[in-house]
Amino acid sequence: MKKMAKRGELIERPAYRAIRDYAAQLGYKDLIYLNIGEPDFSTPPNIVEAAKKAMDEGFTHYTEERGLGELRETLALKFGEEKKVKIGKDEILVTNGSAEALFITIMSLVDPGDEVILLSPYYPPYLSCVRMASGKPVIVSTDRKTLTPQPETIQKLVNEKTKVIIVNSPCNPTGMVYGKDIIKAIVDIAVDHDFYIISDEVYDRFVYDDEKVWSPSIFDPALERTIIINSFSKTYAMTGWRIGYLIGNKNIIANILKIKGSVNVCASSISQKAALEALKNSDNHVKKMLEEYAKRRKLVLDRLSKIPGFNCPTPKGAFYVFPDISSFERDSLKFTMYLLKEAHVVVSPGKAFGLEGEGHIRISYASSMENLKMAMDRIAETVKNYQT
Ligand SMILES: Cc1ncc(COP(=O)(O)O)c(C=O)c1O
Question: Are residues 213 and 234 in the same domain?
Fold first, then answer.
């Protein structure tokens, strides 16, 4: 047989998935998984009911490629209220999760050889998508102490081949929320050097301590160069429904739509009806989830601060903490394996999110309070015996 395309070889299976598979094979009965990047809550019942109703009523056919008009209108209204950026329904494209939004946006923007700036540590599919488009990833390390990007460092790496920068605030894996000055500086650099900004805002509803999320769109209100990616997955605990969206100017959306039409016709009709219900009637559920995440975050940060050797800047968003573990061990995979085998706690090694994540682990607190308490007890006990 002839070999399959080399494209597949460019994509590495993310280490956090490999760890999960490995952990499952070990057969331990008491494993606690703190490596999961999805809400542990069930989808709110009113959303599930809306999906059942759609099916009962035979709403089981293709929809408009762009997504249901009513859903896009509601999204446009909500976005306008939240971000104070006025948009219409034709500036929205409904997708199969933000994962698809990311892929089709990168495929639409990046030509072979174009450079794409990734702020590392980053969500691994950014790298795979850039590689699939034959673009050149340009890795900009965030400041090791604050885990936030430094605009001066970005500026130095920009050149005429720079096509896109991907910004993700609140950030997976660090949980950091980038301040107004950083976001504004990134937009200024993009304007000066005429490149696009993909802003992945899937965690924008999960912020703590009255922190504010600054979207690049606030500084680019005509959406001249900003494309926003968002999703129902995290906000409404709907990961399995595969429903997300992107926001951009009409011209950009029309171009991305061409690619989307070839990849899949439209997002699931049933999930779109569920998403509409989520937008209209689920703020109370989101508030409750946020309150619970806030309690868990406090617990994890309090407990980590009492374990000598963990150094954890306070993350203000998402549901991750990203402690520096380099005083125990620089090799994050080795440390992850130690916690797995000795504490029976599964975390993600920092280097799964780019080499700049080395010396850290990612702990997800999208897990019950009971699990988190038990995991923290076990980690505190086992690291006492850690030997390099
Ligand atoms: C930063 C970030 N972007 C995008 C996604 C993809 O989410 P979905 O495709 O479920 O919307 C994830 C999932 O973990 C994520 O963490």
Answer: yes
User: Does ligand 1 come within 6 angstroms of the Cβ of 239?
Assistant: yes
Residue 202 CB–ligand 1 contact under 6 Å:
yes
Q: Give percent above pLDDT 90 in the chain.
A: 90
- Do residue 199 and residue 70 come from a single domain? yes
Cα(105) to centroid(ligand 1), Å: 14
Ligand 1 centroid to residue 381 C-alpha, Å: 33
Domain termination residue (choose one: 224, 254, 281): 281
Q: Is residue 358 part of a domain?
A: yes
Any idea what the Cα angle at residue 141 is, between residues 310 and 372, rounded to 5°? Answer: 30
pLDDT tens for 264-273 read 999 999 999 9
Q: 3-state SS of the chain: helix, strand, coil percent to 5?
A: 45, 15, 40
Q: Is the CB of 95 under 6 A from ligand 1?
A: no
Candidates 199, 260, 256, 258; CA nearest to 225 is: 199
Give the pLDDT confidence of 61-89 residue by residue, as tens digits: 999 999 999 999 999 999 999 888 899 99
pTM exceeds 0.85, yes or no: yes
Q: Which among 105, 123, 241 is the best mutation to test ligand 1's pocket, defined by most ligand atoms within 8 Å of the CB?
A: 123
Please give the pLDDT value at position 14. Answer: 79
Residue 388 lies in a domain: no
The per-residue pLDDT for 21 is 85
Judgement on whether residues 260 and 360 belong to the same structural domain of the protein: no
Q: Kindly state whether residues 151 and 37 are assigned to the same domain.
A: no
Cβ of 127 less than 6 Å from ligand 1: no
Instruction: Tell me the CA–centroid distance for residue 98 and ligand 1, in Å.
Output: 6
Query: What is the reported pLDDT for 131?
Result: 96
